[in-house]
Design brief:
By secondary structure, this protein is α/β, with parallel strands linked by helices. It has a single domain, classed as TIM Barrel (Alpha-Beta Barrel). The protein has ten helices and ten strands. Helix 6 links the parallel strand 6 (about 150-155) and strand 7 (about 205). The two termini are about 35 Å apart.
């Protein structure tokens, strides 16, 4: 078992207040996420980083920086058969029931689970649903139900790649937005996930794409394609699941909300990420303004990688 501090820490902070006790499916009302009885929720959570999406910087690797390149190193060292054994043991032990219980004892109320599409679907035959993905998610959802924690499912690595960098396990470009097959597979996977967890209140919602469209790609061309793809994903999800919240991240590391128009679904939450910035109101004002303009909930889905003093100041800013 690895201690929780080896996970990528983030605060999932709603700009609202209230109890976080689960009774049934959470929903949205105006600028807040609410419980079934209408109580606003203040989300305080952690990402289970480096578990289902290994990242090189978390291992302190110098060159291998994505799940694919890390696996290549492991295969070169011990061969493909032993690599499969290694990754099974890794996934079975990196996050355990004890870790989930510890997260609860820390006073947190939610976890965000980054996952890779390759854990669910054959890369060679996209109509074959194989891999340990659902087994791993089912296991941690069970643990979170027992502990009284909400779960946010985060597609960190989408077919084709939504970021075009190491974090989405892509080939260095955002092929998702230009490849119809990758788009259809992404939509099918979200529909399948939603169908599986449609009646599970421990799952708070679905974070559709992590940090789409890195800043060094053609923003003018690609940014215009993001919200239409989100709309197609949500349409597919709503065919099987009207219970859960959907989280939408802005372009350029979840920071650019200029890609969004008016909300197109009654249960949307807009999520931004911030690292290495001043802990001042100016750093979040554009998101606060967006929340006020459209009367929608706002969530900070990732932060951290800084000193304890910075993290404390940043958290206090979100909760004001």
């Amino acid at each position: 078992m690895l201690p929780v501090w080896k996970c990528a820490v983030c605060f999932l902070l709603m700009l609202s207040t209230g109890s976080a006790q689960r009774s049934s499916f959470v929903s949205t009302k105006g600028g807040e996420i609410i419980t079934r009885d209408g109580t606003p929720i203040l989300l305080r959570g952690i990402n289970l980083g480096n578990w289902l999406v290994p990242e090189g910087y978390m291992f302190k690797f110098k060159t291998a920086n994505s799940p694919r390149t890390i696996n290549e190193v492991i295969c070169e060292l011990i061969g493909t058969d032993e690599a499969r054994v290694f990754w099974k043991k890794y996934r079975d032990n990196y996050i355990t029931r004890d870790d989930i219980q510890y997260i609860k004892k820390l006073g947190l109320n939610s976890i965000r689970i980054p996952f890779n599409w390759r854990l669910f679907v054959s890369e060679e035959y996209s109509d074959q649903w194989i891999g340990p993905g659902f087994e791993m998610l089912d296991r941690v959802v069970d643990w979170c139900r027992e502990a009284g924690l909400w779960v946010i499912l985060d597609m960190h690595c989408a077919p084709g790649g939504q970021t075009g960098d190491n974090i989405d396990d892509s080939w260095g470009y955002t092929f998702l937005f230009e490849n119809p097959e990758s788009q259809e597979l992404t939509i099918k996977l979200w529909r399948k996930i939603a169908e599986r967890y449609a009646l599970e209140p421990t799952v708070m919602g679905y974070d559709l794409l992590n940090e789409p469209i890195a800043h060094f790609h053609d923003q003018k061309k690609l940014n215009a394609l993001l919200e239409p793809l989100y709309q197609r994903m949500v349409t597919a999800i709503r065919e099987v699941d009207t219970n859960h919240i959907v989280f939408l991240g802005g372009a350029q590391w979840n920071g650019n909300f200029g890609v969004f128009g008016s909300p197109f679904d009654p249960k949307l939450v807009y999520t931004f990420h911030k690292y290495w910035c001043d802990t001042t109101q100016a750093m979040i004002q554009e998101y606060v303004d967006f929340r006020a303009k459209y009367n929608v909930p706002l969530c900070m889905g990732e932060s951290g990688e800084n000193t304890d003093a910075w993290i404390s100041a940043w958290r206090n800013l979100q909760e004001r």
